[in-house]
């Protein structure tokens, strides 16, 4: 079971890397704006350029989070379905 | 004469209010490198006549035990005799003074001492091997109101054994300079790495000052540009000033790296017989500056392999970099997206022969800062219409919290890196953050669905059991 979970995690890591792509390909086109966003602090006043980069970073992370959520849902439904079946049958049999 | 303790060589640098004491480490490689200088004779001579001095140089480092910069770079010159050492010392002194003058003209509101950053060129102090005082009086003058510095460099002790038994103090000179961080160059950048443009501003301004005083660095290339992070800012700074020379009157000999040689000087070298003009020396510096900026933006390996390679279409043996049109084509092949066109045009323009090409490069008027500003303006015009849809105050997508986005920025800011390194750190942090977000959502969804379905089934079965009884 532990082996299966670690394989699943490795597969998820590969999938996330493939789905999101290399960060340089995503953020390179933002040119100096990306470096500017990194230099400013969260308390700094945000102009259009900084908002553009922040949103791009959030989008990049959201794609990965969405992928994790999809895989987690699939695994949860399978394991939960099996658990539900076993629990239901066990309780029925005991009763 | 020789000191048996090889670690005891110390140098003192005094300049109010700071006082540095450098402990010179023995060199890692004892093999000296032969260098040649063309210098004005020690006691004058016919105008324009230069004396050739052959010297050996050993490179090593030193650490500062007191105030100021911690790590230092040390060059140890050994001349054939005391007279040559004296002439070389005068020469290095003039170089150091001219280059330090450039730094003193750079705007620096927080500078307490004239030899503090910001620098366009890393400052060099000359130290005599015979232990006598070396004063750089009237050198560090500034129009910014910084008081005149008296920098006194003094050799504290006799020469160590690792300089060799034949070393005579009067034949030895030291040139010490603060050690700054090397730049990490990318091989090829699929997108223009324009985050490098800002740290070049100080260097560009300094280059213009240097030329306005009739001097040229003559060896600007990627190897001779380092990064200086100081008081929260990062500048790219020129190092290795051995080849620096007065451009007016133009010298008859030039020490430069052939790979980064300006076409005008290369033609002179290949077809001797003509006198070089001062403009060629300014152009050499500007050409070197262009190759450095392009190495930062497009990748160093790409510049060496593509731009500095022979042009197969040029039957006179020219290189791609000798033609603005060919440079533009090469840049278009590297960054084919049409949005980069304004930037590509500005980067290729100085390699041409027009008024903003060869004519501007060889003219004594300042050029570098203006060109760099125009490049930055061109970069601002490279707008991607798809991406410009972002609006201020847009919330993060619901699966990601603002804190997760901030973690990326915090991870990149956690290291004392320049902006280019910070961008690389941020790429790693984004990739790590993406994996962490995916793993976290994976666990959350798996537990929710797994526990939810199982729990629901247990409740239904128990309910049925209770109702059945």
Automatic annotation (TrEMBL), chain A:
Keywords associated with the record: Membrane, Transmembrane, Transmembrane helix
Transmembrane intervals: 75-94
The species this protein was found in: Actinoplanes regularis
Protein name: Uncharacterized protein
UniProtKB/TrEMBL annotation, chain B:
UniProt key word Membrane: yes
Alphabetized UniProt keyword annotations: Membrane, Transmembrane, Transmembrane helix
Transmembrane segments: 446-467
Protein name: Protein kinase domain-containing protein
Source species of the chain: Actinoplanes regularis
């Amino acid at each position: 079971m532990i082996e299966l979970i670690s394989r699943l995690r490795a597969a998820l890591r590969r999938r996330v890397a493939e789905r999101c792509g290399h960060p340089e390909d995503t953020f390179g086109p933002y040119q100096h704006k990306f470096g500017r966003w990194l230099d400013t602090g969260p308390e700094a006043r945000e102009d259009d350029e900084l908002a553009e980069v922040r949103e791009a970073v959030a989008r990049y992370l959201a794609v990965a989070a969405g992928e994790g959520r999809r895989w987690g849902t699939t695994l949860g439904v399978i394991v939960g379905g099996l658990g539900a079946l076993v629990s239901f049958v066990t309780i029925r049999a005991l009763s | 004469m020789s000191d048996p303790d090889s670690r005891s060589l110390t140098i003192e640098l005094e300049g109010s209010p700071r006082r540095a004491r450098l402990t010179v480490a023995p060199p890692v490689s004892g093999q000296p490198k032969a260098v040649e200088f063309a210098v004005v004779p020690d006691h004058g001579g016919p105008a324009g006549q230069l004396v050739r001095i052959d010297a050996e140089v050993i490179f090593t480092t030193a650490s500062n035990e007191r105030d100021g910069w911690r790590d230092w770079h040390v060059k140890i010159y050994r001349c054939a005799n005391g007279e040559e050492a004296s002439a070389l010392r005068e020469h290095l002194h003039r170089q150091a003074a001219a280059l330090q003058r450039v730094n003193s003209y750079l705007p620096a509101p927080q500078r307490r001492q004239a030899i503090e950053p910001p620098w366009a060129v890393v400052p060099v102090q000359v130290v005599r091997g015979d232990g006598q005082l070396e004063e750089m009086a009237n050198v560090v003058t500034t129009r910014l109101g910084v008081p005149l510095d008296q920098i006194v460099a003094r050799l504290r002790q006799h020469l160590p054994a690792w300089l060799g038994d034949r070393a005579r103090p009067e034949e030895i000179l030291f040139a010490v300079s603060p050690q700054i961080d090397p730049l990490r160059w990318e091989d090829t950048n699929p997108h223009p790495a324009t985050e490098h443009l800002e740290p070049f501003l100080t260097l560009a301004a300094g280059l213009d000052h240097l030329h306005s005083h009739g001097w040229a660095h003559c060896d600007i290339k990627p190897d001779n540009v380092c990064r200086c992070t100081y008081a929260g800012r990062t500048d790219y700074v020129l190092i290795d000033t051995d080849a620096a020379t007065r451009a007016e009157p133009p010298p008859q000999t030039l020490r430069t790296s052939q790979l980064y040689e300006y076409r005008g000087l290369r033609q002179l070298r290949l077809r001797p017989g003509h006198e070089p003009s001062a403009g060629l020396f300014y152009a050499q510096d500007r050409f070197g500056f262009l190759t450095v900026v392009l190495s930062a933006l497009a990748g160093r390996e790409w510049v060496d392999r593509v731009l500095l390679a022979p042009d197969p279409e040029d039957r006179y043996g020219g290189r791609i970099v000798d033609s603005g049109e060919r440079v533009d084509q090469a840049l278009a092949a590297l960054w084919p997206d049409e949005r980069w066109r304004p930037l590509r045009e500005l980067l290729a323009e100085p390699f041409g022969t027009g008024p903003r090409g060869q004519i501007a490069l060889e003219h004594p008027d300042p050029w570098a800062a203006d060109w760099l500003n125009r490049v930055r303006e061109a970069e601002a015009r490279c707008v991607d219409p798809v991406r410009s849809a972002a609006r201020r105050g847009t919330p993060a997508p619901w699966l990601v919290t603002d804190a997760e986005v901030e973690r990326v920025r915090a991870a990149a800011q956690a290291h004392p890196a320049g902006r280019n390194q910070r961008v690389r750190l941020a790429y790693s942090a984004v990739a790590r953050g993406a994996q962490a977000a995916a793993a976290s959502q994976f666990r959350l969804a798996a537990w929710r669905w797994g526990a939810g379905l199982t729990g629901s089934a247990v409740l239904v079965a128990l309910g049925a059991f209770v109702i059945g009884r």
